[in-house]
Amino acid sequence: MTRFRLQPTLFFLLAAWLGIIVFAAHMLMSSEIRRAELQFDEVIRVLASDVKHKLDTNEAVLAGFAAFLQAVDRSDTESAKRYAASAAAAYPHIYMLEVARKVNLSDEKSLEDSLRKGWRDDFSIKNFADITGQSLKGVREKKASWPILFMYPSLPETQAIYGVRLETVDYLSHPMALAQQNVKPVVSPVFGLYEGNTAFILLQEVNRPADASSSDMNFFR
Question: pTM for the whole thing?
Answer without folding.
Answer: 0.77
